Each structure stands twice: as C-alpha cells, then as structure tokens.
Amino acid sequence: MNKNITSLLSSLEKTREEYWNISRLSGEFLNLLIKNLKIKTVLEIGTSNGYSGIWMAEALAKNKGHLYTIESNLKKRFPLATANFKTAGLTKTITQILGHAPEAIPKTPKFFDLIFLDATKYEHLLYLEKIVPRTKKGSIIIADNILTHKKELSSYVKKVQSIKAFESSLLHTDTGFLISVRVS
Fold it and tell me: Which end is more exposed in the chain, N or C (fewer Cβ atoms within 10 Å of the end residue's Cβ)?
C-alpha cells in the first residue's frame, strides 16, 4: 500500500466514532480477502467518509476491479468520501452512488463478487432482498456490527442463515462480521 493511502487511513482513524468506520483490523481483513480471492466487483452499502471503501478499492485496483459504494447523506458524508477517494488516488476504481440503498443499487454489473453491508441496521432485511438476486455461486455478503448490534440485526442473521444457497459464519472482529458465501 502506498504511503499516501497509509497516511490518509491513519488520519481517518481519528474520526472512527464520528463516522462509524470499521476498525483497521477489519479494513486489513477486507483488503486481504479481496486481494487473495481476486475479487473484481464489490458493492458497499454505507460509504460514510470512505474509510472502508479505501481499504477495498486499494485491493480492487490491484485486481483491476471496481467498487460501487452507496451513501445517502449528501450534506456531509458523501462529499467527504469524494474528497477522501480523490486524496487516495482511487477515483478510477470507485463509483460513488448517492441515494437510499435499496433503490440505488446499480443495474450493472449484474452480479457482485462481494457485498459489504455497513449501513442502517433496521434496513438489512431490505438490503438482503435486493442483493441476493445479484449474487452468484462464490459471491460473499459481509454484514458488519453483528456483535455490537446483535438485537437490531437478529432478524437479518436469522434470514440469511435460512437461505439454503448460503453458508454463514461469524468472524469475531471487534464489531463482528457475518460472512455469508453463496454455495449454490
């Protein structure tokens, strides 16, 4: 990872609580996963200030892949992410989408290799309904905050675990990632 991106990520870590960012450990995990599995297309629901997107886009740039990231907050978070993506030098690897995620999911590509959910917790069931048809065998859905928002995400966990096409496992990161892989 280049010094420009490393420096930016370190700077953004100081605003973690304000922008509900993932931890550095979670960012490193996503980056490594994308690189090692040679993932090409990622959909992120919940851009915030772009911290997690930078981790993923850095890996996608190495894979010649692309990140589609959705944010609904126009006044503060969307423009802040735009500036951070530019500072990171990753704008060619990222398509930012302003809007409410269930309606804003792009029509192309048809399928995503990885979908990262880190947005409004009570809408996760709605996200799941919209994204399952956009997965194929081998696609991965990662939901953040499974441990820290256990009550709010319990119906999501129950639903995704009931879908026979997916196998799910809880990764005990600081906030908890539920990793669901499409197996059929």
Answer: C
